[in-house]
Design goal:
Elements lengths: L6 E5 L2 E8 L8 E2 L8 E2 L6 E4 L5 H12 L11 E6 L2 E6 L7 H25 L4 H18 L3 H6 L8 H10 L4 H11 L2
Antiparallel strand pairs: 1-2, 2-5, 3-4, 6-7
Helix pairs in contact: 1-2, 1-3, 2-6, 3-5
């Protein structure tokens, strides 16, 4: 979990807002126990300092949006429509039709409220340009779908996994199109 304490690295006219982070924070690296306090996070090979804006991107993407897009199972949500709105690609993808939509949205809201927003508030208090940091977060979210799975292999399977990864990548890169992502953009916009 990213900590709120910030470390600074001077890179000319831009400071890096660094936090201590797990580095590979996704559901596959969590063992949930039955008894209180028995949940464990493991595989800290990538743990260390990370840009604050990116520290929780993987947790948000992999625990919430990417499962609905078919990264881990057939989400039964197959039809995406694309249209242009100026220079933006708008994706109409019925995530709400997925049986676990509400659960994933609740998890997303929890990750946003308890992890992402506190780090962004701390960065803002330290003088960060939150709109610039938000652009970095959106790029990191989009990369989660592109860099952590063999999308081409998933699309050749007969189980429909992966079919929603392209629309999810676009939605994540814009941080719009799902209630949780709209909420994230709204909260960061208030800073």
């Amino acid at each position: 979990e990213a900590r709120k304490e910030l470390l600074f690295s001077d890179q000319g006219d831009r400071k890096s807002y660094l936090v201590m982070a797990h580095g590979d924070d996704h559901p596959g690296n969590i063992i949930a126990g039955v008894s209180p306090g028995s949940t464990k996070v493991f595989d800290p090979v990538a743990a260390g300092l990370a840009p604050g804006s990116m520290a929780n991107a993987k947790a948000l993407a992999h625990a919430t949006i990417l499962p609905m897009a078919g990264m881990y199972y057939d989400s039964n949500c197959k039809d995406a429509q694309y249209r242009m709105d100026g220079s933006q690609i708008v994706v109409d993808y019925d995530f709400a039709a997925i049986p676990v939509f509400e659960v994933h949205e609740a998890i997303a809201r929890q990750v946003i409220d308890s992890r992402i927003i506190p780090v962004f508030r701390a960065m803002r208090a330290a003088g960060a340009d939150t709109s610039r940091e938000f652009a970095t977060l959106k790029s990191a979210l989009a990369m989660c779908a592109l860099l952590t799975v063999d999308t081409a292999m998933l699309l050749t399977k007969d189980d429909n996994r992966g079919i929603g990864l392209l629309p999810a990548t676009i939605i994540l890169s814009q941080s719009a199109g799902l209630p949780s992502l709209d909420y994230l953009a709204q909260e960061i916009g208030k800073m």
